[in-house]
Design brief:
The protein is mostly helical. It has seven helices and no strands.
């Protein structure tokens, strides 16, 4: 490579955060989000299977009248595309976990537009589920765990796609968690 080519390459990549050179924080955040969200989705799917087999038994995730999962497992909101939402969540979060591992292992796939679409869809889903929870006055604990897992993916992906937000990426995540906590408190406290 000539000096001009090296300088052009470095100039094109100077906005990229240094910590992403080998996966860094983005890969770790995706992997953690995928693991937590996948676990929550699996637990929700197991609860739904238990409810189908034993409809008269109480579920372990039904903690109180306002903090439980059976309300949504029995409602249309729990099966948006004709399959349990938990199954869709399991697929989504498994993909996040795999993608996080790809970043951690040093690969840098150029799929930013897809990450942006996924984050936008995750944002819409999160808002819709929060709205449904507020209207029903019930918060599903495993759904809350999935929300918590989705927040870093949305915040860090937004910062990754919008360079002016990169320095404030953790503020985006903290703001998402604050909003999630406020919604959860409003539902639980009635």
């Amino acid at each position: 490579m000539s000096d001009e080519e090296v300088e052009a390459f470095l100039a094109a990549h100077e906005d990229e955060p240094e910590q992403d050179a080998h996966g860094g924080e983005y890969g770790v955040a995706l992997a953690c989000s995928g693991a937590l969200g996948g676990f929550a989705s699996a637990q929700l799917l197991l609860a739904e299977l238990h409810l189908a087999r034993h409809p008269d038994e109480a579920l372990t995730c039904d903690v109180t009248a306002t903090f439980g999962c059976s309300t949504f497992l029995n409602a249309w909101q729990g099966h948006l595309l004709g399959v349990p939402n938990a199954l869709l969540g399991l697929a989504f979060f498994s993909g996040l976990l795999a993608l996080g591992l790809v970043y951690i292992l040093g690969s840098r796939p150029r799929i930013e537009p897809l990450l942006g679409v996924g984050a936008a869809c995750g944002t819409v889903a999160l808002i819709w589920f929060a709205y449904q929870s507020v209207n029903a006055g019930v918060l599903c604990p495993w759904c809350l765990a999935a929300w918590i897992a989705t927040v870093p993916y949305i915040g860090l992906t937004a910062a990754r796609l919008a360079p002016p937000l990169r320095a404030k990426r953790w503020w985006l995540v903290a703001g998402g968690y604050l909003l999630t906590a406020i919604i959860a408190a409003l539902i639980i406290l009635g």
